[in-house]
Amino acid sequence: MDKVLKRYSRFTLAALTTLLVVIVSLLFVFIGYKIIGVELRNSEIFFAFTAPLLISSTINWYIYGLIKRLEQLEKELRESITKEKENVYLATIHGAQHVTNNLLNGLQLVTMEIENHPSFDRTTLELFNEMQDEAKGLLESLSSVKQVSPETILKSVSPKHRE
After folding, report:
1. Would you list the domain boundaries of the chain?
2. Residue 4, SS3 per DSSP
3. What count of Cα atoms within 13 Å lies in the side-chain half-sphere of residue 138?
4. What is the dihedral of CA 130, 133, 134, 139, to 10 degrees?
5. pTM for this prediction
6. CA distances from 114 to 106, 119, 123 (A)
7. CA distance 48 to 27
8. Is the pLDDT confidence value at 95 over 70?
């Protein structure tokens, strides 16, 4: 149905269905009058033509309007769902940032304690600091995603993206 509505104009669809209803109406009248053996008068042909013409075209226009309204409501619903999905994503990211920042701040205490022990391996301390910086950068990258989709989220934290 959607393909038909997009392929043909409102006028074409209304005209074709109205024409079909008028033809069927006239056929019923001609066949009915033939079966009962009564002569068909011009006024009866006129009514058999105009009644379905008026009724069917009015109904067609109304139904087409309803279909267009439904399409608009569907579009609005999809946009609303997308916006809600983005809001949930951003709230999740902000929550994760809060938790991770608390953890990173706690790890700063560990870094200060390590620095108080000169015997601790400096290479390990540098790796430890790099891991903290990487975690912070990944969270910033996740929170800056503009188009919320699985692909863009994964791309924002992929190794190729970060380099």
Report:
1. 2-77, 81-162
2. helix
3. 17
4. 170
5. 0.54
6. 13, 9, 12
7. 9
8. yes
